[in-house]
Amino acid sequence: MGGRVGGEGRPGVVVLATRNAGKVRELRTLLADLPLLIETLDDHPEVGRLPETGETFEENAASKAATVARATGLTALADDSGIEIDALGGAPGVHSATFLGPGASDADRCRWVLERMVGVEEGMRTARFRSVVAVASPDGRLSTFEGTCEGLIAMEPLGEGGFGYDPIFLVRTHGRTMAELSLDEKNEISHRARAARSAVAHLRKAAGPPGGLPGA
Q1: Residue 57: CB atoms within 10 Å
Q2: Which of 54, 120, 200, 212 could bridge to 60 as Cys pair (CB 3.0-4.6 Å)?
Q3: Residue 130's Cα: distance from chain center in Å?
Q4: Average pLDDT score over residue span 151-173
Q5: How much of the chain exceeds pLDDT 70, in percent?
Q6: How far apart are CA 80 and CA 133, in angstroms?
């Protein structure tokens, strides 16, 4: 994505294309050192429900970012992510947030996974978080960045931090679930952090040198 970050008359603005408070918190932290003003959909009530009808994380992230960029006239950043569990054939995958319906909670989805993993030995409980971050400009330009984090499905939920499947995702390198990590620790190794770091490099280049938000 060339040109300046932001949009017509508002250079240096990026809109996070999500209403998930946990994602907003993580993304704000990951983007904090950029010379950009970070807005969210709370700042843009004119944006309706975002489409998530794709069959891949990339399709969903791209669709959400492009929708928000068109609606706001500003650069938009969207993430689509989920958990892939090998013993369940990669499920729930791209449907991680939706497969139990709109009324299901994070706890409901974690419970569903654990019920289907009863009797599965530790060595067969492999899983990964996958994230695709998309950056879209109002003129239609789009870039995507992917990150993964390998781990295991825990025997029971542990930890109070994070959101989604974090309480049942054991990070082997740390010996704790994602929900037991601090935000700083999570942002060192998470799938979203890895994808976002590539997006940050892209946005920094587009933002131009410090003190000059109009990009190259």
Answers
A1: 25
A2: 54
A3: 9
A4: 96
A5: 91
A6: 7
What amino acid occupies position 54?
G
Contact 181, 161 (CB under 8 A): yes
Catalytic residue list contains 80: yes
pLDDT in tens, 55-114: 999 999 999 999 999 999 999 999 999 999 999 999 999 999 999 998 999 999 999 999
The token pair that represents 115 in the structure block = 């019920």
Minimal CA–CA distance to 79: which of 58, 101, 94? 58
CA distance 115 to 106: 14
> Model-level pTM?
0.86
> Given pLDDT bands bounded at 50, 70 and 90, which one contains residue 211?
very low
Strand-pairing partners, residue 80, are 132
Q: Which of 80, 86, 166, 184 is catalytic?
A: 80
What b/e readout covers 178-215, taking b as 16+ CB neighbours within 10 angstroms? bbbbeeeebbebbbbbbbbebbbebbbebbbeeeebeb
The tokens for 58 are 């990339």
Question: What pLDDT is stored for residue 3 in this prediction?
Answer: 55
Distances (CA, A) of 172 to 64, 128, 169, 189, 208: 32, 11, 9, 11, 38
**CA angle 99–123–93, rounded 5-degree value:** 20
Span 5-25, average pLDDT: 82
Q: Which DSSP symbol is given to 51?
A: P
